Amino acid sequence: MNPFASPTSLTMQGTHRSLDTHKYSVILPTYNERANLPVIVWLLARTFTEQELDWEVVVVDDASPDGTQEVARQLAGVYGEDKILLRPRAGKLGLGTAYIHGLNFVTGDFVIIMDADFSHHPKFIPQFIRLQKAHNLDIVTGTRYRATSKPATVDALPGGVHGWDFKRKLVSRGANFLADTVLNPGVSDLTGSFRLYRLPVLRHIITETVSKGYVFQMEMMVRARALGYTVGEVPITFVDRIFGDSKLGASEVVGYAKGIWTLFVSV
Amino acid sequence: MARAHRAAVLGTIAIIAYMLTLFNVLSVPLVDAKIAEQILPVFPWWLLVSFGSYCLWSIGMGLATLRECPEAYNELLVEITAAKNDLRAKGVTVD
Predict the structure, then answer these.
(1) What is the predicted ipTM?
(2) How far apart are the first and last CA of chain B?
(3) Most A CBs within 10 Å: which of B59, B65, B80, as the mutation test of the A interface?
(4) What is the distance between the alpha carbons of residues A1 and A3, in angstroms, rounded to a whole number?
(5) Which of A91, A87, A111 has its CA nearest to residue A101?
(6) Which residues have CB under 8 Å from B2's CB, separation 6+?
(7) Chain A residue numbers touching B93 (CB-CB < 8 A)
(8) pLDDT at A243
(9) Closest CA in chain A for residue B87
(10) Interhelix angle for B70-90 vs A68-79, to 10°?
C-alpha cells in the first residue's frame, strides 16, 4: 500500500509534526481488569501522544463480571471512540482467539500485543518502533533477559524483572533454557508476550498457530522464525503482578513441556 | 522439515558414524588407533557429562545475570497514582 495515500497520512496532513504515517494498534485482551485498564490506557495514550504517533487500543473483553467494559466505555468517552475500541466477546474464550477477534477491528498497520496488568510498560513501545524502522523488521519482541538490544541500539536500557523470588527466577531460566536448547528460536525470551508485529505478518502467523495459553506466544515466535520473518529484541523491565498473585503448579510445568514437544515435532 | 525430523536425521548420522568407528570399520582421522580405542567407548558418557555441565552453567549464568529492577517498580507506582488522579478528574471510575 502507498503509505502516502493511507487514511492516516491523508487526515494527518498539517496536524502532526511527525513524519510517521503508520498507525499503531494495541490489542488488549482483558478479563477482570477493571482496576488496571484505566491506568494502562492512560500510559499508552501518554506514550503515543508524546511520540506524536497515530494509535488505537482494541479492548477485547471476555465478558468480565467486574465491570471492565463499563470502564472501557468511559475511557472511550475521554480519549475518543476512534482511539479506544471496545470489542467484547460473549465468554472467556482464550488468548489466541482474543487476538484473532481483535485483528478483525484493527485499522493500523502495526499491531502491539501486551499484557494489561502493568507487567509490560508502554514506555518501551517507542524503542520497539525505532528498532523496527531502523532495520525494517517484521517483529520486535521485548526480552527480560538481555541488557542490550539485538540488533544493537544506543538507547536500549538493560532489561530486568521485579517481584520474582528465587524459585520463580529458577523456573523461568530453566524453562527458557529448555526452550532454547530444543527449539533454538533465536530470541532470548521465548515466553514473553510484549511484541510489535507488522499487521500482515501477525495475520499470517496467527492462522498457522494452533496451541492455547502461553504456549501460543511461544509458538507464534517459533513459527515466525521458521517462516523467515525478521525478529529484533529490545530489553524491557518486567514488573510482575503488583495486583494479585499467580501460581506455577505442576500441571503448568507439564503443559509447558508438552507445548515444547509439540513445537519440536511440528514446526 | 520440522526440527524433530532434522534432529533425528543428524542424530542417526552421528550414531552410525560413532558405531562405525567403534567397531573399527572406519578409523578416526588424525588420532592414533590405540588412543581412539580407549576414548571411543566412553565418548557418549563424556558427551552426557559435558551437556549436563553446560546446562548447569547456562542456568547458573542466567540466574546470576537476571537483573532486578526496583527503579522500574517505583517509577510504575508513581505513574499509577498520577494516572488514577488524572482519570478520576476526567470522570472515569478508578478504584
Answers:
(1) 0.82
(2) 52
(3) B80
(4) 6
(5) A87
(6) A264, A265, A266, A267
(7) 34, 38, 67, 70-71, 74
(8) 44
(9) A38
(10) 80
